[in-house]
Structures are given as structure tokens and as C-alpha cells.
Amino acid sequence: MAIFSNRRDAGRKLAEKLSKYANKPDVTVLALPRGGVLVAYEVARALNAPLDIFVVRKIGLPGHEELAMGAIASGGARVINQDVVRRFNVPQGMIEAVVKRELQEVERRERAYRGDHPMCEVRDRTVILVDDGLATGASMHAAIKGLRVRHPARIVVAVPTAALETCEAFKHEVDEIICATTPEPFYGVGKWYEDFSQTSDEEVQALLEGTTQHVLHE
Questions:
Q1: What pLDDT sits at residue 211?
Q2: Better-scored residue on pLDDT, 1 or 48
Q3: 3-state secondary structure (DSSP) of residue 81
Q4: Pairing relationship of beta strands 176-181 and 154-161 according to DSSP bridges
Q5: How is residue 73 annotated by DSSP?
Q6: Which of 12, 30, 200, 211 has the greatest number of C-beta atoms within 10 Å?
Q7: Coil, strand, or helix at residue 202?
């Protein structure tokens, strides 16, 4: 049974769990595109916080792209799942080829969503990383790794739904993890949305232009 009607509904419900961060001048909301942007838009609006993106791409196993052997984030930070690499005996050259291709897509999305404007400053700020859910958490691990080099004061991961074991694992990696729901058995992120249709680049651009203009043009 679905818990959320769509990502915007999920964002509003997630924001209720984040109310202590409302109207704090040092809080920034970062969304993982594309689906995470719709969720994060509602979170940022409810918290009266600036919204920006942090692009992450899954590194899919060649021939079985739905299986993540890692992820790569803005700035080139990468996380490799060595268990998957060993299980399928993936040569290093193949990993590098996929990473190179996905890095190009990261850069394309950065240009498409942000244009020539740099990412907003996060140093010494509380950053709330938002996605539409966590299954294995590979993309979020890469986002955290990429974000740490920018020296935020605190990293908070917030998602509407997650596998319980994944949610628990993040408690040791960030300052706070907020998973609004952890249904069991989990099945997958999309299972808990009535509408989990793909988010377009145009939707992302429209939401960012409506909420981050004052941040990106400072």
C-alpha cells in the first residue's frame, strides 16, 4: 500500500520531521536529482531554507545497469561496491570507462540545472541532503563523500522512505539520518508512492529557478 501520493506529498510529510531546522540562517537543502528535487523543494519551502542540487550518478554494472557497482557525485567523488566488483570479476579498466561516462553525465546535468552558476556555499553550514528514498544507499554514500570535501558543519540525510537496514547504516556516517518511513519488507522506493513517474530535466530546472535564484545570483 502506497504511503505517499507523489514526491511533493512525500516532501511535505518529510518536512514535518525536520521542523527543528526551520528558519535557521545556517541551513541549506541539497537535492539529489532528479526525483529528489521534488521532495527537497517542499522541504526547503517548509523550512524557509535555500535549495540547490548535488548531482549523483549510479555506476551500473555493464550489461546489468540496474545493479549498482558504485556511484559518482559532483566534484568526482566516487564510491565503489567492492563486493559487486569481486562477485562479477569486473576489471578496473571497465570500471574506469563507466566512471568516465557517468562523470560526463554528471557534468551535463550540472550545466543543465545550474547553468554557469556555481554551487551555493556550504562551508560551516548545516546541509540537509534529500532524495526520494534509499534502497542500497550507494548514491547517497557518494553524495556524502563529495560533500565532506566542502566542509559543512553538519550533514543531515533526510528521505521519505528507506530500507530499515540502510537507514540504520547511515547513523554512523552522518550527523543525523531521518527516514520518515521504514516499511518492512521494503521491496523498493517506488513501491511506496502512488505516482513515482520519472522527473524531467525541465521540472528540475523550473523548481530550481523558482527557489534558488536568490542564492545562486548572490
A1: 58
A2: 48
A3: coil
A4: parallel
A5: E
A6: 30
A7: helix
Q: Where in the chain is the domain with CATH 3.40.50.2020?
A: 7-54+119-216
* Residue found under cell 518511513: 181
Res 218: pLDDT: 28
H-type helices in the chain, by residue range? 7-16, 35-47, 82-87, 92-114, 138-148, 164-170, 201-211, 213-216
Tell me: pLDDT of 206 over 70. Answer: yes
118: closest CA among 6, 51, 25, 217? 217
Q: What is the rounded CA–CA span in Å between residue 192 and residue 37?
A: 17
Tell me the C-alpha distance between 201 and 59, whole Å: 20
Residue 70 backbone zone (phi > 0: left; psi -120 to 50: alpha; other: beta): left
Grid cell for residue 124: 560551516
Q: List, as own/partner pairs, every contact residues 162-169 make where C-beta atoms lie below 8 angstroms and the sequence separation is at least 24, other chains included.
A: 162/133, 162/134, 162/135, 162/137, 162/186, 163/134, 163/135, 163/136, 166/134, 166/135, 166/136, 166/137, 167/134, 169/137
Fold of 7-54+119-216: Rossmann fold (3.40.50)
HSE-CB of 203 using CA atoms within 13 angstroms:
15
Closest to 99 measured CA to CA, from 145, 56, 129: 56
Count of Cβ atoms closer than 10 Å to residue 182 Cβ: 16
Task: Provide the whole-model pTM.
Answer: 0.90
Q: What is the largest CA-CA distance in the chain?
A: 50
